[in-house]
């Protein structure tokens, strides 16, 4: 029997944050550090050294291979880009003359000509983490003005060789300095990562007022254990982290390492799914010239990207957890939810799971469509109290999209004064029977 479905759209909720107007959804792009680190020998390693060639080639790949179309817009320089000393006359930072012979301004112009944005790295203190000139408190305004004159679109301020007292002054000062330049420049702060990531040393209210994103935890490494450590920390301290995040101000769990050396296909799916649930910035750190087809297709998959970019900007929550299984839930626009079932186990068999939407406190609508995001396949139409069963492979994830059907039914017959729905179509898919 056919049923007429009338579905209602819901309006997004808007919030406010840092008043520079950028990053209303998590930023997406490419960042050099995890994959290329501080490689400066361009004689022996011309294709992998930190140089203008590297960033131009990555920008080219972002455009030619569909990355920018998928949403990846930033090309971000990290540490080790400068000369070992500032200009003796002007006091300004100087790009390495051999590795960036044309300077940063022409590089920014080239990246802008492709419709992309350029990010750059600085460090609060006498030195950067790699031993290059840092930005001391009296140099903040000069460096901010220099970056603005070069056409930089984002600044990451690291914290190596800084004291807690210097950070308390320097990070807010750089925020004001960037705004004072008159150029719109997004601001990434590493401040909380150097102070343990938690109150009382970290003031997340202040961070939301001065920064667009911030690193809370240690650097990601190219390993599944590193990914899990970050996810576990986010779950443990979610009651602190979730209220801090939102449009224009994001918790940053660090780079995506999908397409590098260590993650399996399942682990790669899991990292991207979790970063989508966490409303995290999506900065890849990989070699886009050599990335495999599977990793490329995964990172460009519209399903997890759309979840990540949801305009409500609500960070997901760990709903329940065991030693080997996590279930995460993120609220999305229009009464929708994203659910990530993460199998952290390494045993040889998949984990069998039974869930109902009511067990996840998803009960507002009469019916919900559940879709496997990576497979882009509707799994069925479910009432909130109905159970659904599935399995998740070891070190892998099941990412689900749950969408309400707020509908009025017209039936060909009435049974006990209620609609007895036998068939419902969602898009072109015939969903399983619901009674």
Automatic annotation (TrEMBL):
<dbReference type="InterPro" id="IPR035373">
    <property type="entry name" value="Melibiase/NAGA_C"/>
</dbReference>
<keyword id="KW-0326">Glycosidase</keyword>
<dbReference type="InterPro" id="IPR017853">
    <property type="entry name" value="GH"/>
</dbReference>
<protein>
    <recommendedName>
        <fullName>Alpha-galactosidase</fullName>
        <ecNumber>3.2.1.-</ecNumber>
    </recommendedName>
</protein>
<comment type="subunit">
    <text>Homodimer.</text>
</comment>
<feature type="signal peptide">
    <location>
        <begin position="1"/>
        <end position="17"/>
    </location>
</feature>
<keyword id="KW-1015">Disulfide bond</keyword>
<keyword id="KW-0325">Glycoprotein</keyword>
<dbReference type="GO" id="GO:0016139">
    <property type="term" value="P:glycoside catabolic process"/>
</dbReference>
<dbReference type="InterPro" id="IPR000111">
    <property type="entry name" value="Glyco_hydro_27/36_CS"/>
</dbReference>
<keyword id="KW-0443">Lipid metabolism</keyword>
<keyword id="KW-0378">Hydrolase</keyword>
<dbReference type="GO" id="GO:0019377">
    <property type="term" value="P:glycolipid catabolic process"/>
</dbReference>
<dbReference type="InterPro" id="IPR002241">
    <property type="entry name" value="Glyco_hydro_27"/>
</dbReference>
<dbReference type="GO" id="GO:0016020">
    <property type="term" value="C:membrane"/>
</dbReference>
<dbReference type="Pfam" id="PF17450">
    <property type="entry name" value="Melibiase_2_C"/>
</dbReference>
<dbReference type="InterPro" id="IPR013780">
    <property type="entry name" value="Glyco_hydro_b"/>
</dbReference>
<dbReference type="GO" id="GO:0004557">
    <property type="term" value="F:alpha-galactosidase activity"/>
</dbReference>
<keyword id="KW-0732">Signal</keyword>
<feature type="domain" description="Alpha galactosidase A C-terminal">
    <location>
        <begin position="313"/>
        <end position="395"/>
    </location>
</feature>
<dbReference type="Pfam" id="PF16499">
    <property type="entry name" value="Melibiase_2"/>
</dbReference>
<dbReference type="GO" id="GO:0005764">
    <property type="term" value="C:lysosome"/>
</dbReference>
<dbReference type="InterPro" id="IPR013785">
    <property type="entry name" value="Aldolase_TIM"/>
</dbReference>
<comment type="similarity">
    <text>Belongs to the glycosyl hydrolase 27 family.</text>
</comment>
<keyword id="KW-0458">Lysosome</keyword>
<dbReference type="GO" id="GO:0009311">
    <property type="term" value="P:oligosaccharide metabolic process"/>
</dbReference>
